[in-house]
Write a structure and sequence with these properties.
The protein is built from 5 helices and 8 strands. It is of the alpha+beta class and 195 residues long. Helix 3 (118-132) links the parallel strand 5 and strand 6. It starts with 20 loop residues before the first strand and ends with a helix.
Length: 195
């Protein structure tokens, strides 16, 4: 999955990371988003290489060095949040401002956390913030990637595509499918659930 960090409600080129603690019901684990720091770059670059390898190989575009370097070159801690479960970095997501909209990029989850609802929960929390800001969100996903279905369930539609990428957009307030409407638990709900 490709995705960055939340805008702060203004259209300036500054952003505030999403700070959410949630219980991913289907995933069965408490998770949180924390602001990325510069030291996260290598962990995230490696995560990107692992997650994107199957799709890039399928498209004949995998390059061991380039897959990591593209993340290093584009890494923006102020626009990136890290998905954590306990002390483990389970993924990341970036949302950066771009000419009156937001780009969702560098959205990766470790393979052992995929397919159990965590991606949908994280994406839902991110989109709740972008909707509150009244911002259109754009992204691109590789042709044939399973991530495309996740984005479509959350209201993204295809804008354009080429042989490698599918460019998608989501206006604020797009209604997600009923499967994606689960909301993150509040801190109080998490404390009660742990009792």
């Amino acid at each position: 999955m490709d995705a960055g960090v939340m805008g702060n409600g203004t259209r300036a080129n500054t952003a505030v990371p999403v700070r959410v603690v949630a219980a991913a019901v289907e995933h069965g684990a408490d998770w949180a988003l924390r602001s990325a720091v510069a030291a996260d770059v290598e962990v995230i670059a490696e995560l990107r290489a692992v997650v994107m390898r199957p799709d890039l190989e399928r498209l004949g575009r995998y390059d061991e060095h380039r897959v990591r370097q593209r993340l290093r070159d584009a890494f923006s801690p102020q626009h990136t949040s890290v998905v954590v479960i306990g002390r483990e970095i389970a993924g990341c997501v970036a949302v950066r401002p771009d000419e009156g909209s937001l780009w969702l990029e560098h959205f990766y989850l470790a393979p052992h956390h995929q397919g159990r609802g965590l991606g949908s929960a994280v994406l839902g929390a991110v989109l709740e913030r972008t909707d509150a800001q009244g911002m259109t969100v754009r992204l691109n996903v590789l042709q044939g990637s399973a991530a495309r279905r996740l984005y479509e369930r959350h209201g993204f539609v295809v804008e354009t595509q080429d042989p490698v990428d599918v460019f998608m957009t989501r206006p604020p307030g797009s209604v997600p499918s009923p499967r994606t409407r689960a909301r993150p638990a509040t801190d109080t709900a998490l404390k009660q659930a742990r009792r």
